[in-house]
Specification:
This protein is mainly β. It has a domain of about 120 residues: Lipocalin, CATH 2.40.128. About 5% of the residues lie in helices and about 45% in strands. The strands form eight sheets. It has a five-stranded mixed sheet, with no helix packed on it. It has a four-stranded antiparallel sheet with strand order 1-33-32-31, with no helix packed on it. It has a four-stranded antiparallel sheet with strand order 3-4-5-6, with no helix packed on it. A hairpin with a 3-residue loop joins strand 7 and strand 8. It is globular.
Length: about 375
């Protein structure tokens, strides 16, 4: 018995020592301090409104969705909210008493949202009234996509479902094995001209036929590599981008790649790891890597136009192009406005609310930002 107690004591001391050593080294990953900005450009908050409870401290796929003149949000407590884009006035709010975790998405008729228990809801976009509800196999962390009357849903157990938008009945299902260890999160399916593009947790990018779910092509963006399960994480958690006939995709442990959309062959690749959405315009591809360095990459070659390192480990949101700037949010609720040409931070604004984890949206020359505690705000900048 005494030997057992001694063994437990030694084990406890070892674990305590290891933990203390780990935390001592963790100072390397402390968020960077904010540097003062000389003559920042003025940021104008047009309106701010509470839009439910947000995502809380959970890592969920909840992001604002814009259709026509309304912006829609879902929160982790089960509320759906519709707000006027121009004024911030609340149009309707419905409580479904579910743990929403992915969405909303939709079209001009329906809003589609998924829950942590695998439920999918479709509601009338004008009123918020429930149209149908469907139980799927597991948690939904991606934004449902709707095209040609078909709803595409991805679940965390590796399945992709196609549902009829009118009544929710299943049209087809595609299954893929999930690695034993992967990041919490899934990329959103992208639908283009009858093709469903999906980045998977095994580092592959697949194309499915929207009508029947047939596998059309499969591209390895970053094959799992390494001696441990941690090293072999190769998730594609950011959405693939199809722009100018080129497909851009990235994996967490591997590469950013540009692929010829017709030939299916790689044009270039860069060894940059990211799990966030990228964004693109005619000038560059913009992304945030896992150390929260912000990059602008040349579209033709993948070479770095600039790299910003002032925001290391500030848990940045995915970037968005806003006028002549790149905007990212951070864990303290700050918005950082970065000059697209130079990569320098030219202004900063603290949005109402907590951390900004959802990618901001840009519509009609305004920037819309949702915080993790559910505050929604619209901004403009005077150049």
């Amino acid at each position: 018995m005494l030997k057992i107690i001694r063994s437990i004591t030694l084990l406890f001391c070892f674990l305590l020592f290891t933990a203390c050593s780990w935390f001592a080294d963790d100072s390397e990953f402390e968020p960077a301090d904010l540097i003062s900005i000389e003559d920042p450009l003025p940021i104008d908050e047009k309106w701010s409104k509470g839009a439910g409870s947000g995502s809380g401290d959970q890592r969920l796929g909840l992001a604002p969705y814009i259709q026509d003149k309304q912006i829609y949000t879902a929160d982790y407590k089960g509320e759906l909210t519709a707000i006027d884009l121009a004024t911030g006035k609340k149009k309707w709010q419905k409580d479904f008493k579910l743990s929403f975790s992915g969405g909303p998405g939709g079209n001009d008729e329906f809003l589609i949202v998924g829950s942590s228990n695998g439920e999918v809801l479709a509601v009338q976009i004008e009123t918020g009234e429930l149209v149908w509800q469907k139980q799927l196999s597991s948690e939904i962390l991606s934004v449902p996509q709707l095209s040609e009357g078909i709803v595409i849903i991805r679940t965390t157990d590796g399945k992709i479902f196609a549902l009829d938008s009118r009544d929710g009945h299943q049209l087809w299902k595609y299954e893929q094995d999930v690695p034993s260890l992967s990041l919490r999160g899934t990329s959103n399916p992208v639908i283009d001209k009858g093709i469903v593009l999906v980045g998977l947790s095994n580092g592959k990018l697949i194309a499915l036929n929207l009508e029947d779910g047939r596998l059309l092509s499969e591209i390895v963006v970053a094959p799992p590599a390494g001696s441990s399960e941690l090293d072999r994480i190769a998730d594609i958690d950011g959405d693939p981008i199809l722009y100018g006939g080129v497909l851009y995709a990235a994996s967490y442990q591997g590469k950013v790649v540009a692929i010829d959309g017709r030939a299916g062959k790689a044009i270039w690749h860069r060894d940059i790891a990211t799990a966030k959405n990228m964004t693109v315009d005619p000038e560059a591809l913009y992304l945030v890597n896992k150390k929260d360095e912000v990059y602008a990459l040349d579209l033709d070659t993948g070479s770095s136009i600039w790299k910003l390192t002032d925001l290391l480990y500030r848990q940045l949101s995915a970037p968005v192009v806003f006028k002549e700037f790149i905007v990212v949010g951070d864990y303290q609720g700050y918005l950082h406005f970065i000059d697209k040409k130079t990569g320098k931070i030219i202004s900063r604004e603290h949005a109402d609310g907590d951390a900004i984890t959802a990618q901001p949206l840009v519509v009609n020359h305004l920037l819309y930002v949702l915080s993790s505690d559910g505050d929604l705000a619209a901004f403009d900048i005077n150049p």
